[in-house]
Amino acid sequence: MPEGITDAHLHLWDLSGGGYRWLGGAAEDLRRDARWEEVAPQHAALGVERVVLVQADDTLADTAAMQRAATRIEADPGPVRRADVVAWLPLADPARTAALLDDATARQHVVGVRHLIHDEPDPGFLDRPEVRESLALLAARGLPLDVPDAFPRHLDQAARVGSEVDGLVLVLDHLGKPPLGDVAAMGEWERSLREFAGLGTSIAKLSGLATSGAGCAAATDLRRAVELAGELFGPRRLMFGSDWPIAPTAFDLTSGTSSLIALLEELPAPDRGQIHRGTAERVYRRPAE
């Protein structure tokens, strides 16, 4: 069993307060609370020692809930010693974003920022002048921007943003959602991924791959995606994530991670260590680090 893993992409949510409208179109099995108490034993079995909670709703309430969960997780005597948060910020309002970035309470546990750009009616959200101003604020403070579900709508855009906002670190969630099983689309995804990987400040997560597109269960498709990621980014720019509870089987951690971990076991131990924890240690840092 791998040791010292960081799960760099974990979701928790409590539906009692509303929000999470996207779940209305998700599989029925997924439409319930995602709680730490349910996934903690699965993480312990996997050897996870750090988790990064990633926003799943474009609200400050979601971020605050993750911060409270992170505090509880760190107080738990279990094997997970550290819990961080990829938060939501109102990027379309740079003044408010700046105020929150300067607020120590709002920054508690925060190591990155994400916005559900794939749900935005405006496909050019990241190109808005006011959003670019906020992204520059993130870069100045050393906070990376996670880019979710990028292919095909946002992968090229993300590469452009990364080249135009000086110093902004971009973290591509789920390797950009490769369309596994679709030969023609995979070729276009690879072209876009190569451009994104050419940025000096781009990182990619090996996460959520088992839920991507038709034929996602095929071992050959997954292997191709992982090997291409290794070629383009190298282990120091890749990190592992479970994407729990979103997996082929909802709320089943192993259904979305076992095949990926088996592939990573084929790598030399130093490379595997970078993907399992080293990259996350360098990219997802708290202000004092």
List keywords for this structure.
alpha/beta, globular
Report on this structure.
- Helix 3 packs parallel to helix 4 (129-140).
- 44% of the residues are buried.
- Helix 5 (155-164) links the parallel strand 5 and strand 6.
- The chain has 9 helices and 8 strands.
- An 8-stranded parallel beta sheet has the order 1-2-3-4-5-6-7-8.
- The chain starts with a strand and ends in a 6-residue tail after the last helix.
- The radius of gyration is 18 Å and the shape is globular.
- The chain is α/β, with parallel strands linked by helices.
Describe, in short, the structure shown.
39% of the residues lie in helices and 13% in strands. The chain has 289 residues and is α/β, with parallel strands linked by helices.
